[in-house]
Amino acid sequence: MRLEGSILTPSGWIAGELLVADGRIAGTVGRPVGEEALQPPFILPGFIDCHVHGGAGADAMEGEAAVRKLAAFHASRGTVAMLPTTMTAKKAEIEAALAGIEAVRRRPGSGEAAVLGAHLEGPFINPCKLGAQPAEMLDPDPVLAAEWCRRFSIRVVTLAPERPNGEALVRLLAEAGVKPQIGHSLATADEARSALQAGIAGFTHLFNAMSGTDHRAPGVAAVALAEGESAELIADLHHVAPDMIRAAARAIPGLYAITDATSAAGMPDGQYRLGAQTIVKQGGRATLADGETLAGSVLTMDAALKNLVAIGFSLREASDMLSARPASYLGLEDLGAISEGAVASLVVLDEALALAEVFLAGVALDGTA
Would you name the residues annotated as active-site residues? Predict the structure, then answer.
């Protein structure tokens, strides 16, 4: 298979052809070109979403069938790999959700974004910073977390390190190769800095559901800006204002975009589920029943890319935040870049940056190779 257009490679843009064989990138042929001279179509590595709860009416807490439905929906929007994300809930409910995610990871289906494992968001969070999480939190429990990590492929865990046993859990996860992230936390700057030293790898939905950037009483967000190497950020322009996104991008070299999408993504306005919570979609926002508390998002990654470009990022910078950086964060060697030998999971955009085609391991979503 050959694709022609402006191709984003790790060393920059080329105008030419992308060659695909046996589901992998066989090479590129063309000449270097500057971003100011790009011509459509634009061929980019497919998007990787490290924090996604649902889509198309399906919620990751509902089990295998729901995970497959949301994985197929987000694939249609350019997401080629993802970490379905749990909600704070009772132990048995979390375990059932993790089992459903694991089933899809082990038995991937046609037309589905690759499920790389789970993002465990809670239950080890601060009860005073729940956001849209149900009040089913637990203090960090290294024994329970170790059990879950043995049974399921958990790639990321969001936790509040200031809670009892918080740093012990951070160390356990880091030693197990899991990415511990600070989120739903009221940690002071000193507590957040201590957690970084213990092994915290990143920050969950930066600025949201965490202590902030007050210049006399800094919290988690301030430490992320001052010392963080990686952080995720919801790029829907509702959760974080453009100026703060640009500030975070200047400060955090590994800043990457997520959707934090709920079951309401891709659906008409109305009521939906986010774990045990009822949420309301109206326009481009999802909230709890109070109409004020943001409850995840209705974002898709193709829309996130457009949002980032609209607020001043170059197409390459936006692509890196949706593909190369999350791939690097997760230690993926064959996704997130158009390089020889990588999996040919790609997106093709038209002149308006709208999705024209999506390829999963060299196969177009319409089934053609």
Answer: 260
